[in-house]
Design a protein that fits this description.
Radius of gyration: 24 Å
Number of helices: 14
CATH class of the largest domain: Alpha Beta
Number of strands: 8
Strand content: 5-15%
Number of domains: 2
Helix content: 40-55%
Order of helices and strands: HHEEHHEHEHHHHEHEHHEHEH
Shape: globular
Largest sheet: 8 strands, mixed
Length: 448
């Protein structure tokens, strides 16, 4: 059974959550339905961790907004392993090269050439290529990809929990969890700040998740265009000068749009989706759309997904929904309130596609879904739904194991007060072991 501390905190947690949900329920429908599509991605009561673009604790982070029409945002988690080379000699050479460039820059920062123009330094040339691997911007007080230092890492899209109405991608708890996953899995984590209900109801959050996947594909294309332009500038002669204006226009467009961390270190052909609670519903939807899109998403390829205690429900109650209806932290009554806030009033149905993926005739055939790891907790009323979905995937030969954690509650590995428990650490390690089967460049040498 959960500890006394967990039980007491659960009572306090449910009291606050129930109060907040009822406040949203009492808000007139017309006030939410007529709200701007820009929306919100976090609540005032949410504690937020500031982004840190340096590797002070092994992971660099920064926030970006990727859609001018909505509040959709990303927090990028870049592990320090992107800097690790196969030998220490490369590190020392890189450090010496950077030191040399700094010395050149200092010598020329106030000096002029004989013609009266400021001398062009190697460092200044690198600044111009701010969208590629050859970047070292001293004005940016954080990590900037260095020349010759372009280790490629898989990309993981992470969707936080909160019943579609709370939580955020930059909360203290989510920041801690994503840092842990980035280190253990050795991946670049993109934590998605999707729009929350009831200000933005279904399908806003699902559309935001899919939009991030398409944005990732666009990033790859922009990065490749930028590299082609840089290569073309190197040996064009007269033909290069004739079209130099057009190249400048295209170059400026590409440079302004591409994300340098992803351009230098991201490998979208090894893309993993990870969803927490309601975020698992979003991740599964994105996986379905990736299957339907097929090669249209190339070179982005979803190779696996992790569903952590998925926020599923249905009109016919399961055994766990009956036995554990009043379970810890998120009981069934409060989750029903969350679904009422998330689904439009005319669409409210416990067998809605967003709530129950096992209704026949919805989405692509299950046999086309990517390998799926499902995490469930013993004392979670949603446990049986996650297990049932995994069983249906296995019936059509999809690798879909289930990890059930004893004496665990909903969000046992991602809730703020439970993040430092041995069980939460073990869960993250188990995820890393399984995920590495599908993101390793050397094949499936990891066994589970």
């Amino acid at each position: 059974m959960p500890s006394v501390t967990v039980k007491l905190y659960s009572l306090f947690f449910k009291f606050l959550l129930k109060h907040r949900l009822h406040n949203h329920i009492q808000t007139p429908r017309h006030e939410t339905n007529n709200s701007s599509s820009f929306g919100i991605t976090s609540r005032p009561e949410e504690s937020v961790a500031a982004a840190n673009p340096s590797f002070s604790d092994g992971v660099a982070t920064k926030d970006i907004h990727i859609d001018p029409l909505t509040s959709l945002s990303l927090r990028i988690f870049l592990p320090e392993t992107c800097l690790v080379s196969l030998d220490s000699d490369f590190k020392s050479q890189l450090r010496a090269r950077v030191t040399s460039d700094l010395d050149v820059l200092r010598r020329n920062s106030y000096a002029s050439s004989g013609t009266g123009n400021v001398a062009t330094t190697p460092m200044e040339n690198r600044r111009r290529n701010s969208y590629g691997c050859n970047t070292l911007d001293l004005n940016y007080r954080g990590y900037s990809p260095a020349i010759g230092n372009c280790r490629r890492l898989p990309v993981m899209l992470q969707f936080h929990g909160g019943g579609f109405v709370s939580g955020s991608n930059d909360s203290v708890a989510n920041d801690f969890f994503c840092r842990r996953i980035a280190k253990l899995c050795d991946v670049i984590v993109l934590a998605v700040g999707y729009r929350l209900a009831p200000e933005n109801q279904y399908p806003a959050a699902f559309e935001d998740g899919l939009k991030v996947l398409h944005w990732l594909a666009k990033q790859v294309n922009l990065s490749e265009c930028s590299k082609s332009l840089v290569n073309a500038r190197g040996g064009g002669g007269a033909d290069l000068r004739k079209s130099d204006i057009n190249r400048n226009v295209a170059d400026a467009f590409g440079a302004s749009m591409v994300e340098p961390w992803l351009a230098a270190h991201g490998d979208p052909s090894r893309c993993v989706l990870l969803g927490v609670s309601c975020g698992a519903n979003i991740a599964n939807y994105v996986a379905q759309k990736a299957v339907e899109a097929g090669k249209r998403l190339d070179p982005v390829k979803v190779v696996a997904q992790v569903l952590m205690y998925p926020f599923l429900i249905g009109s016919v109650p399961t055994h766990s929904e009956i036995k554990l209806a009043n379970s810890y932290f998120y009981d069934k009554a409060m989750c029903l309130l969350a679904w009422k806030l998330f689904l439009p009033e005319e669409e409210f149905n416990l067998d809605h596609p967003a709530a129950n993926p096992l209704i026949p005739g919805r989405g692509p055939p299950l046999k086309l879904m990517p390998p799926t790891l499902t995490i469930v907790a013993e004392h979670d009323w949603m446990r049986d739904r996650g297990i049932a979905y995994s069983e249906e995937l296995r019936k059509v030969n999809v690798d879909a194991p289930v990890l059930e954690y004893k004496d665990a509650v909903h969000e046992f590995a991602t809730l703020d007060m439970l993040l430092t428990t041995p069980q939460a650490q073990a869960c993250a390690e188990d995820i890393a072991i399984w995920v590495k089967k599908y993101i390793s460049l050397r094949g499936h040498e990891f066994s589970y």
